[in-house]
Amino acid sequence: MSQLHVEVGHSTLVGLRSRNEDYVSAATPEGDELAAKGVLIAIADGVGGHAQGREAAEYAVRNLLTDYYATPETWGVAKSFDTVLGAANRWLLSTARKNREQAGMATTLSAVVLRGSRYYVGHVGDSRVYLWRDGILTQLTEDHTWPHPELSNVLRRALGLDEHLVVDHADGELAVGDCFVLLTDGVWGTLGDAGIKALLMRYAKGSLPAESAANALALEAVRAGANDNCTALVACVRHVPQSNFRDQLNGAQKLPLPPKLNIGEHIDGLRVIDVLHESRMTLLYKVAQGDETYVLKTLRPEAGDAESIAALVYEEWLARRAVAPCFPQVVSHPARQHLYYLMTWHEGESLKTRLSRGHRFDADEVAAIGLRLLKAVAILHRLGIVHRDIKPDNIQIGAQGQITLLDLGVAASDGERLSEINNPGTPSYMAPELFAEGAANEVSDLYACGVTLYELLTRKYPYGEIEPFQHPRFSQPTPPTRYRPDIPEWLETVLLKACAREPKDRFETAEEFTLAVERGAYRPLRSNRKIPLAARNPSMTLKVVLIISLLLNGVLAFWLSRT
């Protein structure tokens, strides 16, 4: 058995209340969805004493279980939780504002995702998540309550309570036998940690039965006089898959690397037409099968270490999720007996090649390319993918001006963390903060877009060419009109903002960058062409101040000598 196996049981009792305002549920997918998104369990406790508490709890859990599985696989669990729960929070607040009878509807929510060999917790409110492991009970969540002399559990954080929702996150490694115990305050507040542990110990002879344990926890709390609804959910891990990447890595490690291929040779029914690219680690071939033409990407025969294989499989996994005409599409090849992956072939040439041929890009042409490039980048960013190597070499332009963004070889997503094949990025296109060990993100991708458009117009870089292993010093970007006086002012302003030294001065999203280009001269950005010398060149400013000071001192000394 290579997949995660989890046994789930739950119980919810009204107790001494007139109605049950708790809600509990779980989603246990199978196959690829289980590997990609995992098992999701959740519990919620509608705020007691307010209208629609039960409705709030049920809506929050149902919405999470539905929308979590609709988020991109490239998103991390924390990002998926924040996005889905943020939307639920806005809906609850909006609904409460529209109807006085529903004012105050709010709910706690605690959820756990069990995926692969790790667990992920998302939590807001005072429901609790415990981990029962090897006879030790550990509370994984914090109660978001205010101390009160007369009332217990006064919530300071919950869904539907504030405009700005803050969700707590935690994660860790899974082990066979782990049991996750989710409880509303009616159970944990009545039994206490000692009572919960004693009951679990009673059922822990052999493998803890999830359904029986959940029933016993809820029933014992009611018997002990709980004055609230009592809800328990128990999820016990029966099998943990090997710690690998989406099961794909396990299969890929069994495949041999192909030998270095020459034009005319065959591999797995594919004929090599051309060798497109060779690097220190990878090989790129143009291949054909019948009338169809593809691109085959693999590793060099001597580069078959575990990290390089994992990175190639990761690149294929990302590429499969970037489904749009502006990206090469991964092609399944059932006859594959070697380690590689196939992509669709796109006619055209790279922007770097077009520059090398002497093509002179005008402002309108660069603006059109920029809009298409930013559309592709926006698609990646919505998937939680950062490209990390945007440059003219990786942008192909077709006969009709269509753009294809290539090479996800050093791309990253918050859904997975793998070691690098090599240092990501090309120095001249890397944002200044990356040279100070900053992490690449969407803003640094947009910086690279700005440098790319700047280069198309000027054949220069805003801070000069940066060589590998160089530690550059950044002042202010050189205005592109220094090299091309015919560049319109609005476009120069856009490029200078995109290539600003400080991240806070750049575009925050691809959509914002796109809007600035689309508006163009009709609604231009505010121009910052006249940059003070002190900001443009601090060292020159100090030299000028020093010279002026020396001159003044000289004049003063001369005047004193005369008097």
Name a few traits of the molecule.
single chain; 563 residues; alpha+beta; Phosphorylase Kinase, domain 1; Transferase(Phosphotransferase), domain 1; 6-stranded antiparallel beta sheet
Helix content, binned percent? 25-40%
Strand content: 15-25%
Euclidean distance between termini CA atoms: 100 Å
Let me know the average pLDDT.
88
**Tell me about the biggest sheet?**
6 strands, antiparallel
Number of helices: 14
User: Over all CA atoms, what is the radius of gyration?
Assistant: 30 Å
Trace the largest sheet across and list its strands. Answer: 13-14-15-16-18-17
* CATH topology term of the largest domain: Phosphatase 2c, domain 1
Structural domain count? 3
**DSSP strand count:** 23
CATH H level, superfamily name of the largest domain = PPM-type phosphatase domain
Please name the CATH architecture of the largest domain. Answer: 4-Layer Sandwich
Contiguous runs where pLDDT drops below 50 for at least 5 residues: 419-423
